Amino acid sequence: LERRTGGPREALPAARATILNEYGWLWLRRDGEPTVLTEKLYPKLLGPGSTKDERLELNAYLLGAKTEYWRAHRNYAGILHFVYLTCSYPGVFTADHFEDVKALKLNPWFEDYMSEAMKPLGVYLNFFQPALEAGKSRSFRVMMVNDLYEPAKGELRLTLEGEDGREVARAASPFEVAPLGTLTRDLDLVAPSAPGRYRLKATAENADGSHTLSRRK
């Protein structure tokens, strides 16, 4: 995704606005089991012994990131996730994201990641590498989109957090995005010297108090 090899590099040459209606291909059943179309995918992503919760969390994490990607590059007039409410049973090809369909209760990981990815003020952290060189500075690209008819302004923050949630690095920059506009910022962070698992976060804090979050492991 960082190199943009998974989709069009330029606006689509269509006479009319187009909508991307299917882009995930990460389906899981409501019980966390892969569907017929993804039964070979999750062993490659997580290994053969993954748990239901590991699969459901990864599904939401990756789907959120792909949603951010397609929104940020503005190739389409609309981004539509294919299957919000459908079916779920052994042998199914696709399924939805409800934990309890009778109560209309969404899977909490899907609700967490996708609620951020679909906010009108969108944030896309263009980084998917599994590791950083310890103690070295690196530039990270953050792309923003504003799907509202009013300008958005505030502060864009980039932070690194350890597993305990403690912040170990921070960079910030003011932003102002025009109505229906886009904005790209490159922010530098120095990676921590201590090895470990970290989470990279890009947060757009709007002047009205709202915020949008993009996260990478």
In short:
The chain has helices at 41-46, 52-72, 108-117, and strands at 19-20, 78-79, 98-100, 105-106, 121-125, 137-146, 152-162, 167-177, 182-190, 198-206, 211-216. It is α+β, with helices and mostly antiparallel strands. Helix 2 (52-72) runs parallel beside helix 3.
Give the topology.
Layout: E1 19-20, H1 41-46, H2 52-72, E2 78-79, E3 98-100, E4 105-106, H3 108-117, E5 121-125, E6 137-146, E7 152-162, E8 167-177, E9 182-190, E10 198-206, E11 211-216
Parallel strand pairs: 1-2
Antiparallel strand pairs: 3-4, 5-6, 6-9, 7-8, 7-10, 10-11
Helix pairs in contact: 2-3
For the largest beta sheet, what order do the strands appear in spatially?
8-7-10-11
Order of helices and strands, N to C?
A: EHHEEEHEEEEEEE
Global mean pLDDT = 93
Number of helices: 3
Radius of gyration: 18 Å
Task: Give the biggest beta sheet.
Answer: 4 strands, antiparallel
First and last CA, distance? 15 Å
Structural class call reads alpha+beta
Helix content: 10-25%
Q: What coarse outline follows from CA principal-axis ratios?
A: globular
Strand content: 25-35%
- Low-pLDDT segments, ≥5 res: none
**Total DSSP E strands:** 11
